[in-house]
Amino acid sequence: MSHAYTIFGLAALLLLPAFTAHRIANHLLNRFSPIARLVVAMSLWVLLIWTVLFVLAPFAMIRTIPVLFLMTLLAVAACRLEDKVEAPFRFPQLPFLTKAGLALFVGALLAHAARMYTTGAIFFSDDYAYHGPVVTEWLRSGTLTHPMINFASYYPLNSHLTTLYLSLPAGNFRWSWLVNLYWIALGGAALVALVSQRGPAAIACAGLAGAMFLLTREVDWYGAALTSTDIAGSVALLAAFAILVHTPPSPTGRELVVVSLLAGLMIGFSIGTKVNNVIPGVFALGYGLFFLRRMNDGWKSSLPYVGWAALGVFLTGSYWYFRNLITTNNPVFPVRVWFFTGPGTPHVFEQSKMTWFFRNTEDVWELGKEVLRLALDWPTFFGILAAVGLLFGCIIVAVWAFRLIRYRDTQLLTQPLPWLVLGALALLVVYPSMPYSGAYIGSSELLVARRYFLYSFMVGLLVCSWLAGSAGGRKFATIFALVALVVLVHWPRTGAGFVGIVAAVAFMAYPIMERAGWRVLSLLGVAVVLLVVTVRELTHDRPWMTFQVHRERIGFQQVMDALGTLESGARIAQYDHNSWETWHLYGPHLTLQPVLLDARGDEMRPLRLAYSQRRERPYDALGVPGMRMTIPPEEFLANLSAVQLDYLLIGRWDFHPEWPPQRAILLSSSALELVVANEYSELYRVVGHFTDTTEKDLN
Fold it and tell me: In the predicted model, what is the mean pLDDT of residues 377-397?
């Protein structure tokens, strides 16, 4: 596929929904503040993408041309909408500290984008286990086919849709990091919007909080991965709050319908991204209900708008759960819960929970200190700041609850901050008993998956920014300078200098922004980016992504180079101790056909079928192939012959230094011809029948 097609197709896919979202926001919500309209437009961007993909999916037409056609129709229709904004967006006169805070966030955002563009996305084990295979099958089929094997493939996949969308022109995932950049930018905009009514000092701190959010290890790491599941879910909830908070006084019926539906759509999108988001999502819905009641002076008159909000939650939050319900009779398959059955029994997940570690340790105090150390390491300074914010949030909630009980003032229920904090605290309280909160299944090594409570971290930073609205003067300037220095020093990869330079440029360019206006600046920025990207793409030839499976897998790039030379459509399988990490089997051009095998040599069936038919499952605790099962060689080779493979990849790892037991059986057959071999990987071509055996040196 040509570079020009990829570049301009990608630009069109980015800009067409952006233009449409902007026109809709300015037409329907013209009385909203500029920052609120920005959050609305950015939220509409992802919702337009979600809608177009679901419209085309039943017809297997999720391809670049049909998607561009629909997006163009929407943009043309948006041109007919009248721009009713009373005062067009202008860069306001802001105090020095506010400019500096916003410039720091913009600098960090641009630095992250520059690093991603020059180094490429770096994918990790979850990408190879299910993120990559799921989106690759969608990309190849043009529809939202049902995932295949392991536990995670049945989880809600809303955030994967945007990855699919921006992968269409290139036909691969080289530009997937743009989706993560979008969610990070929306997160910063939501933070600023939620505190903007507290004054310039709060806005400055919100800009700083946005930079901290971007510079944390979790966001920096997952911002380079294939999909931004944890980031997207947290940010969508904050965006829903920001939209509700900025509703102008005495809203019209049309404004309330739009606000109710849009907030519901973002809450539903979050729930359809990860089931854990139901916890803070309930508190977001609670705030929305009392907000609508206040706007309509009672429950009866607010019911239509509550209905619109419920519709929004249902539309974007229900699809994946209904699909599981229809195909498995369990909306949260494979988890066994209530009367819903599945292979994910409580016993399977028990040892992965934080509570299991506390129940099975003799030194609870030492374990608690280690958990706290890991939980605060965002880096630690950021974690402490967020923890302080949540501590103050607890005080705010306590005072709020006391006044609510004492004075029976239901107007207190329309304050957003307590609901935000309650959702964040509830997530923290539930976290220790959640699967994967203490270890991965099958591992005894303690971990704290901070990404699972990223929402709590963001709310902690938000509370700090909120409280800073009453600060000012020299004292605040000193604190701001010190914190900004810490943010710069902790930039993990690109380096403090680059962030500082970009932030300084953004700060110095502010007067130009004030004079030029956002339209001129936006067009100029798009033109410059297109020029730079076009020149670089035409003069540089590099792989579509950086494969970083595990550092222990020496020689893997040699195998990937060989996979890129195989004939399109070739069927390839693998045997190693992590045989569920199969994304690389599609090859660098995504033209190969992976075949998942169990230990017996049979082609694996989807987990839902294997479980429902009560077959003796050839799966380990993850619902993936168990490679250590013993089987008679004759039976194994007979099973393998029936699969009709073209290639076979055999691998081992430093932490599993032995070869999988199937290797010895395979090498006893004359069916394999060596293509590539090194100390850790062997790629074979199938040239005969596996049942034909000869004496071979197995060393």
Answer: 92
Return d(Cα 118, Cα 677) in angstroms, integer: 31
State the Cα–Cα distance between residues 9 and 685, nearest whole angstrom: 37
Count of H-run helices and E-run strands, the chain? 29, 5
The Cα 471–Cα 440 span in angstroms is: 43
**Phi (first) and psi of residue 673, to 5 degrees:** -120, 125
Sheet containing 647-651: order of strands: 593-594, 571-575, 647-651, 681-686, 672-677
Handedness of CA 384, 390, 394, 396 (dihedral sign): positive
CB neighbour class for 257 (10 Å; exposed up to 12, middle 13-18, buried from 19): middle
- Please write down the long-range contacts of 556-564, taking CB distance under 8 Å and 24 or more positions apart: 556/584, 556/680, 556/681, 558/676, 558/678, 558/681, 559/584, 559/649, 559/676, 559/681, 559/683, 560/584, 560/587, 560/588, 562/675, 562/676, 562/683, 563/587, 563/588, 563/592, 563/683, 564/588, 564/589
144: left (phi over 0), alpha (psi -120 to 50) or beta: beta
**Residue recorded with tokens 């004939």:** 567
- Do strands 647-651 and 571-575 pair parallel, antiparallel, or not at all (unpaired)? parallel
Structure tokens at 145: 């086919």
How far apart are the C-alpha atoms of 353 and 162, rounded to whole Å? 31
pLDDT digits (tens, 9 = 90+) for 130-167: 899 999 999 999 999 876 667 788 899 999 999 999 99
For the record, the structure tokens of 505 come out as 């440029």
Position with higher pLDDT, 24 vs 508: 24
How far is 242 from 39, CA to CA, in rounded Å? 7
Gyration radius of the chain's alpha carbons: 26
Residue 253 has pLDDT above 50, yes or no: yes
Instruction: Spell out where 484-607 has E strands.
Output: 571-575, 593-594
Torsion of CA 338, 343, 345, 347, to 10 degrees: 170
What's this model's pTM, rounded to 2 decimal places? 0.92
The residues, any chain, with a CB within 8 Å of residue 265's CB and separated by 6 or more, are: 43, 47, 312, 313, 315, 316
DSSP summary character for residue 130? I
**Cβ burial 424-450 (10 Å sphere, 16+ → b, else e):** bbebbeebbebbebbbbbeeeeeebbb
pLDDT at 10 over 60: yes
Q: List, in sequence order, the alpha helices (H) in 80-176.
A: 96-119, 125-126, 132-141, 158-167
Average of per-residue pLDDT across 53-68 = 96
Distance CA(562)–CA(583), nearest Å, equals 15
Q: pLDDT tier at 696 (50, 70, 90 boundaries)?
A: very low
Binned at pLDDT 50, 70 and 90, residue 312 comes out as very high
Closest by CA position to 666, among listed 655, 643, 678: 643
- The answer to whether residues 491 and 107 touch, using CB atoms and an 8 Å cutoff, is no
507 CB neighbour count, 10 Å cutoff = 18
Token representation of residue 16: 């067409």
d(CA 94, CA 92): 6
